[in-house]
Amino acid sequence: MLARLMRAEAEGEGDLGMLMVGNVGVNRVRSGCLDFKNIRTIPQMVFQSPGGFEATQKGYFYQGARDREIRLAKRMINGERQHPASNSLWFFKPAGACPSQWFDQWNAGRFKSHCFFRPTSADCPNVY
């Protein structure tokens, strides 16, 4: 399921973009904080409502994951982190530049068209 999410959200941004989406997803499961206090599994994270992923509303998400995406998802589940998603819990694709904050969360950086946002270590120590 994580592999399908990574592909549906960021296939156009290559392996690194998909890894970053996976990084955010795994962080949400591990964090136990803020909007994700009750998220404990990958399916809960993927289908969280409100706050889930737009990709789940499109048919592409429901196609089977390919070996490549499965290998990338396993890397994230095994603890690999990719900057700027390392400690991030959110990402989005703005029309222009990344804002310095998004819903009171700080910008961690940008990769191609996605901006990544992280909580403070005080708010979410489990993502650090």
Give an overview of the whole structure.
This protein is an alpha+beta fold and about 130 residues long. It has helices spanning about 1-10, 15-30, 40-45, 65-75; strands spanning about 90, 100, 105-110, 115-120. A hairpin with a 2-residue loop joins strand 2 and strand 3. The radius of gyration is 13 Å and the shape is globular. About 35% of the residues lie in helices and about 15% in strands. It has one domain (about 1-125). It has a four-stranded antiparallel beta sheet, covered by helices on one side. The model has no long low-confidence stretch (mean pLDDT about 95). It contains four helices and four strands. It starts with a helix and ends in a 10-residue tail after the last strand.
Q: Which bin fits the share of residues in helices?
A: 25-40%
Radius of gyration (CA) equals: 13 Å
> Helix tally?
4
**Beta-strand content bin:** 5-15%
Topology order in helix (H) and strand (E) letters: HHHHEEEE
- Shape label: globular
Ranges where pLDDT stays below 50 over 5 or more residues in a row are none
Please give the number of β-strands.
Answer: 4
First CA to last CA: what distance?
24 Å
What kind of sheet is the major sheet? 4 strands, antiparallel
Q: What is the mean predicted local confidence, pLDDT? A: 95
Structurally, how many domains make up the residues? 1
The assigned structural class equals: alpha+beta
Strand order in the largest sheet: 1-4-3-2
